[in-house]
Design brief:
This protein is of the alpha+beta class and 174 residues long. The protein has one domain: Gcn5-related N-acetyltransferase (GNAT) (Aminopeptidase, 3-Layer(aba) Sandwich), CATH 3.40.630.30. It is 28% helix and 34% strand. It contains four helices and seven strands; from the N terminus they run E-H-H-E-E-E-H-E-H-E-E. The chain has helices at residues 15-28, 40-48, 101-116, 130-138, and strands spanning 5-9, 57-62, 65-74, 85-92, 120-126, 142-153, 156-166. A seven-stranded mixed sheet has the order 1-2-3-4-5-7-6, with helices on both faces. Strand 6 and strand 7 (156-166) form a beta hairpin. The chain is globular and about 40 Å long. The mean pLDDT is 94.
Length: 174
């Protein structure tokens, strides 16, 4: 990574890049349970549900080029007792894999959890996504759950993992 990585909140002009990166993950057949690629129109309502104060989308960019993103989603929306728990998802443009981008955006987002009021993060991922498992474990996420063989990606079975992190407010203070 030669240029400086910038992490910021997403805006609507980022949506085509977010969709392109996510569609790469769909084509990989090991990073998401979605099987059909998304269009811009299909993701407008999805994008509009995020807000920077509680459930942001973070953008990773180099030289103003979007190369990855991370979302914080509600866990069990509408249940107030669970409002300090959120689901985290992150995707990096495949041409920028293995350059530390995932680690940098994850570190940034974990630190921002104090500001957005999140005490626990859940990452829900396919057990064949070993790259993401490694990044999560690097940041002290622990395996909290496993559903073996319940996912069917075009005839290939895999499991669903739940990794969790309790946010240590002093360790991740900004």
């Amino acid at each position: 990574m030669k240029s400086k990585l910038n992490i910021r909140f997403a805006n609507r002009t980022d949506l085509p890049f977010i969709i392109d990166i996510y569609n790469q993950a769909i084509r990989s057949k090991n990073a998401t349970g979605d099987l059909t690629e998304f269009s811009l129109e299909q993701r407008l309502d999805w994008f509009d549900k995020f807000d920077n104060e509680a459930y942001p989308i973070y953008i990773a960019e180099i030289a103003s080029k979007v190369i990855g993103y991370c979302t914080i989603l509600p866990y069990r929306p509408g249940r107030e007792a669970m409002s300090s728990v959120a689901e985290i998802s992150y995707y990096i443009d495949y041409s920028y894999h293995n350059q530390g981008i995932g680690s940098k955006i994850l570190e940034y987002v974990i630190k921002d959890c104090n500001r957005i009021g999140k005490e626990n993060l859940l990452a829900i991922l396919l057990d064949i996504n070993l790259e993401s498992v490694g990044i999560l474990e690097k940041f002290n996420f622990k395996k909290w759950g496993y559903f073996p063989g319940i996912i069917n990606i075009n005839g290939k079975k895999c499991g669903h993992l739940i990794y969790g992190l309790k946010i240590n407010k002093t360790q991740y203070a900004t």
